[in-house]
Design a protein that fits this description.
alpha+beta; three-stranded mixed sheet; 5 helices; 17% strand; binds zinc ion
Length: 119
């Protein structure tokens, strides 16, 4: 049996994926399943590619949200899109405000790591 997801394991896995992915800022509208949104992630064509609305607030939050979709993709197959979004939204809030944003060093580390992946 695999180890359970703790906040620490989730953050580690998210940072590992962040180290391999590419982030693109776009001025074009982003849509997922026909709905407008601030960011999206695709991983079926090689390393994960995150596209973010260049004008949206909360780049760290958007990236963390998309990384959670990727890191938990195997767990999420049992949820429909609506429920998956609710689960990932909740985890994003927790990982952002409960873990990363509480700690200045961590916040800086995430901000720099994200900036380093933007093409
Ligand atoms: Zn989402």
């Amino acid at each position: 049996m695999r180890a359970k997801w703790s906040a620490a394991r989730l953050e580690k896995a998210m940072l590992e994926v962040l180290g391999t992915c590419e982030i693109i800022l776009t001025e074009r509208a982003i849509r997922v399943n026909g709905k407008p949104c601030a960011a999206k992630i695709v991983w079926d064509r090689g390393p994960p590619l995150i596209t973010i609305d260049a004008y949206s607030f909360g780049r760290v939050k958007a990236v963390m949200h998309e990384l959670l979709h990727y890191v938990l993709r195997e767990e999420m197959v049992r949820y429909n899109e609506t429920v998956e979004e609710i689960v990932i939204e909740g985890l994003t809030e927790y990982m952002l405000n409960g873990v990363v944003a509480k700690n200045t060093k961590r916040w800086k580390m995430w901000t720099k790591a994200i900036a380093g992946r933007v093409k």
